[in-house]
Amino acid sequence: RLSAVEALSERLAEAAAILCPENGSEFSTEVIQVQVQSPTMPNLSLIDLPGIIRTTTAGQDRSVIANVDALLESYLKQPETVILAVIPANQDIATIDILERAHHFDPAGVRTIGVLTKPDLIDRGAEDEVLKIVQNVRKPLKLGYVIVKNRSQLELKNSVTLAQSQLNEDAYFEGHDVWKKIVPSSRGIKPLCERLTCIIVNRSMDRGPFLKWYLVDKLNKTESKLTELGIEIPDTAVAMSKTLIKIVARYCATLRQIAVGDYRDQLAQSNTELRIRYHVTQILEELRQNLANNVPDLNNEEYAHKLHAGVSEMRGRELPGFGHTRLLLSTVADELQAWQLQVDEAVSQAFNAYTSTANALAMKMTVQIPKLYDEILSCLHLTCDLQAMEVGKRVDEMFLRCTESASTDQDLIDSINVIRFSRFENALKDVFAAAKDNQIDAKQSKAELQKHILDTLGGFYMHYHSIGFGATVQLEDAQAALRAYWSICEKRINEDVESAVDMMLLQRCSEVIETTLLSRTQEWLSDPVRLSVMMSEDPKVIEERKHLKMVRTNIKAALEKLDVIIPGCIAKSPFTL
């Protein structure tokens, strides 16, 4: 804090030395902010931009030109900015770049005013050319020009005050043969301030609706930031206890709600990343697609060849198409292992989604109370780690059932029986068709008739049991049995995983976390010292809240003054066509 204006120059030099190298040849895009507070000061921002650089000097990087241009443009393009185009009076105005830049961003000229400096450096006899500029003849500007004489280096060295400097300036213009011809409103610092005040007031009137929209928008954003910082923690033990209970209860209730897809809490409504049920549903849907896409292609030639080779090696009647249950299990083993890896990955993603969402929720509700946040986080990770182990066991058991119960699973047996019955009917139709084509002759002997019947029934038996009908029938039977197996496994795995994630993750984790936190809360409430430590606010949050409250107060005051200056002013977005 500085109480004297004279000390400001030294402090600015110190700041510049920190931002730039000692040789002073570099440029920094960092802003040095000087805040002046006084009950008589207007709420106004003055920005002293660097001069335009056309070429670099020894030791300067070429990027400094682009950096300065970008910095200038960032301020010139703002419609609220009033541009003071500062021009040395001893230079040819035709070579001054700032006027063209100002015209580019302010083509109507409603916020650009020219300021001529250093009139004492103009050569004798060249004053008339400058006079034409000040009189707005040579290079007209809608808001015109003002000529000023600042303190010289000698006056700065001798610590001439600003008040004395203004008296010196008035005396200089009045005593000059040419400058005294300039109208008083176009010469000196004081007339410049008065003209700037008129410009700012007029622009405030014209842009009042836009300014009000900006202030209202800024106020809403400030209120949102204050809300994000959480409620202030009271000092008394009773009030502190109530606040703790309120925060923990809200956290537990909201966590249970979002776990089942209930997003009634304001945080869940305004933060889509907290919608855990939706995210987990997306993970499970992706798992369904992956499992469906990874069912073996039973019609693949290489796979069919491998399958037929296995069928040919075994004989038996346990499953149609397979000589033994072990063949079925060996055939599906690799695919089942790949499926389990996909299930494990999906379950892991679901737990990560739950943990990160519960963590984000805790951060938003306890941003101002870091110790309480740490306690919730500890409880969260401990609970999720334990439940992840339980779900992992459930998944292992699920895949174990897919292998151990292959020959006894009633659903699989029913599906395979459908295949048997279908083949039985097809074989019977084929045999009847053959018998019909070979009609019985009435003159046949008993022995010949007996032989015909035996041949017909034998053909049916061989057809039904795939005897003598080649590899095609055996392969088709094996493929049909595998289709039944994969269909049942896919359905059951999807249902079991969804049930495990729902019951053991989303619901059970939320229940355990709530029980644990409520128990710990009772412990904290029973110890006033521990409660006070637990509910200590983050100093950074306290400071930021204080700053935001000040900003809110200033914005509200500005809105009140704007309503006085422009009664009935209605906010209008500058982005509205």
UniProtKB/TrEMBL annotation:
It holds the Pfam family GED. One of its GO terms (molecular function) is GTPase activity. This is Uncharacterized protein. PANTHER family: DYNAMIN, INTERFERON-INDUCED GTP-BINDING PROTEIN MX. One of its GO terms (cellular component) is cytoplasm. It comes from Spumella elongata. Keywords: GTP-binding, Nucleotide-binding. InterPro entries: Dynamin (IPR022812), Dynamin_GTPase (IPR001401), Dynamin_N (IPR045063), Dynamin_stalk (IPR000375), G_DYNAMIN_dom (IPR030381), GED (IPR003130), GED_dom (IPR020850), P-loop_NTPase (IPR027417). GO terms for biological process: receptor internalization. Residues 475-570 form the GED domain. Residues 1-209 form the Dynamin-type G domain. The keyword GTP-binding applies.
